[in-house]
Write a structure and sequence with these properties.
81% of the residues lie in helices and 0% in strands. By secondary structure, it is mainly alpha-helical. The chain folds into 2 domains: 412 residues, MFS general substrate transporter like domains (Growth Hormone, Chain: A), CATH 1.20.1250.20; 50 residues, no CATH class. Helix 6 runs antiparallel to helix 7 and helix 11 runs parallel beside helix 15.
Amino acid sequence: MTDADRSQRTRWRALAVGLVAAFMTLLDVSIVNVAVPSIRTTLDANAGDLQWVLSGYALTFGLTLVPAGRFGDARGRRDVFVAGLAGFTLSSAAAGLAQSPIWLILTRLLQGASAGVVTPQVSGLIQQLFQPAERGRPFGLLGATMGISTAIGPLLGGIIIRLGGAHEGWRWVFYVNVPIGAATIALGWRLIPTRQEGGRQRESLDPVGVLLLGLGVVLLLLPLVQRQQWRSPLTWLLMPAGFAVLAGFGYWERRFARRGQPLFQLTLFRLRSYALGALISVLYFGGFTAIFFLFSLFLQSGLGYSPLLAGVAITPFALGSAAAAALGGQIVNRFGRPLVAIGLIAVAAGLTGAFVALHFVPGHGAPLATAGPLLLAGLGSGLVITPNQTLTLSQVPVPEAGSASGMLLTGQRIGAAMGIAGVGSVFFATLAATNEGWSRAFRDALLVAIGFVLAALIAALGDIVANSRRTGR
């Protein structure tokens, strides 16, 4: 075997390790949803406790993405990856051992923070190991991993709870991370390169920028993730305060860039591919994430399905997303942003089809009636997430890959929180105001989710038109 062949095998093995870690960390965003009833009973948790169990993970996940990505850029991805994964594994074990709601909440916060350390290292690793023309396939695999982990979480959670028992099965939702995490740590330490050529080693990591970005993200996300517990209208004043802090972050980063390496290079937003790709990502995740949260709620609370059957009902989307993501990664360099637009059209068409199906089949036949439309939406989703990420990061310099990926993922978390808040508000308002029940509420929520997808489509079309004018085609 030649040195070139050996190097090729090593980088694909390193990528495989990263994909396993990404699957674990992203899976925990959704897998815990189906465990909520068991957690409530076992730990005597109230609604506020359960909200923090679910949303605390997403909150701390979003907080650490950009600083961790920047740290990996500066000090080498392997050490940061292994440290983050070790924290995730240990906090998963601690969550499974929880004896009180506050214990579980604190370990979920640690889990989320650790996941935020791991995730941007995977995207940065792809940027580091593969040349721009080669990145479509690995980003396709990452996109498939993201799509499957998000959509299949309820199904896996239902299976684990069924095997572990209704009372204590929720603990195994966390315990399952421990052996996989331990093996991935060992392989990651062995296979992932210590640092890229010419990597920056001992420069300032911009602590003021870290503080300002973290505070701004917290102020934006808190009113969204706590909307059901914090009923006062004054709560929403935190959002303009968050935007003000983020404006201060932008000012500080421009100033800091004159004398050092900032937490995030704002000049990346001058790249149309990055700026519009980030906007598409925020808008799409606003509609995409909310659907699974509400569909699972509709099936379990509205129609009385078990967690396992509710997870099975979402499987068509997961399968379609996985298949199309792998394909999208291979053809994105040929078709560019029009491929993303085609995917968004398919998602909008699939969700519209689900709306129509639920109008005619609102009862227990809903999962079967929506299987075809959800498969179409999943195929479209696979053509959105992976190609959009590939195009968004295509012009980003490798030394900025981790922080650029972290900012992109932070936008996804903010978009997801906005979507769940906006789409969820319509869902619960309709449920309370009409006598038509859960099916009508979910249909109205679908319309809002479709609005998010169409807004993302408009952004994609704007990029296509601008690119056509620039090239004269």
